[in-house]
Design a protein that fits this description.
about 210 residues, alpha+beta, Arc Repressor Mutant, subunit A, ADP-ribosylation fold, 2 domains, three-stranded antiparallel beta sheet, about 30% helix, globular, EC 2.7.1.-, Probable RNA 2'-phosphotransferase, RNA_2'-PTrans_N, transferase, tRNA 2'-phosphotransferase activity
């Protein structure tokens, strides 16, 4: 985890210096607070909005002012400036803030549709898993576990990176995204690296890639 700092020209960033110009900015959120605040906001937006009386629409949007009040009751130091710093500096594109609304882009366990997100245009997508699990997935297809959507990667490299968080010997499943899309399976592009689907039936898995 890294500190969140601010560059006067390029805004909030994480790490020692601005990725764009190298400026060493003032710390806005120290790294220990980045971790605590990030886990809390992600939890509220992905998993338990009802616990805090936060109304979420089918696309995952909630009222930003209401979220701020919830966050500030938990962390008195987390004002509007701090919360926006966390959101805008996030390299993984976890959040989207638009006008007076905010949402998590992916990772939901609560039911959402995300109908206002674009469809992915990639011909191939990738899913990283273990060798043991790949046998089951090739037979039954890829289905979400503890989440609303399956998370697919846009590149082989990114899928390997994700898989290595769970196993030292990842297997990558290559998915025929073009055929799946042509057959009516909705593939949601949430950022440069992640595409979501309700599920991927086995007929769209082209092959295993052993690394």
């Amino acid at each position: 985890m890294e500190d969140v700092r601010i560059c006067p020209e390029h805004g909030f960033y994480r790490g020692e210096s601005c990725d764009t110009c190298g400026y060493v900015g003032e710390v806005v959120i120290p790294k220990d607070r980045v971790e605590r605040l990030g886990k809390f906001i992600s939890g509220v937006l992905r998993h338990f909005p009802d616990k805090f009386g936060l109304e979420m629409d089918e696309n995952g949007w909630v009222d930003f002012e209401r979220l701020l009040r919830i966050v500030s009751r938990r962390y008195r130091w987390a004002n509007r400036w701090v919360v926006k710093a966390l959101i805008y500096s996030d390299r993984k594109g976890r959040y989207e803030l638009k006008d007076d609304r905010i949402r998590a882009r992916y990772g939901h366990s609560v039911p959402v549709e995300l109908n206002d997100m674009p469809e992915a245009e990639e011909d191939l997508l990738y899913y990283g898993t273990s060798e043991e699990e790949s046998v089951r997935l090739l037979e039954l297809g890829i289905k979400p576990v503890n989440q609303t959507f399956v998370h697919l990667s846009t590149t082989l490299e990114k899928s390997e990176e994700v898989a290595r968080l769970r196993t030292d010997e990842p297997i990558i499943l290559e998915v025929d995204a073009r055929k799946a899309r042509d057959d009516g399976i909705r593939l949601i592009k949430v950022n440069e690296h992640i595409v979501l689907a309700k599920e991927i039936p086995p007929e769209y898995i082209l092959r295993e890639i052993r690394l």
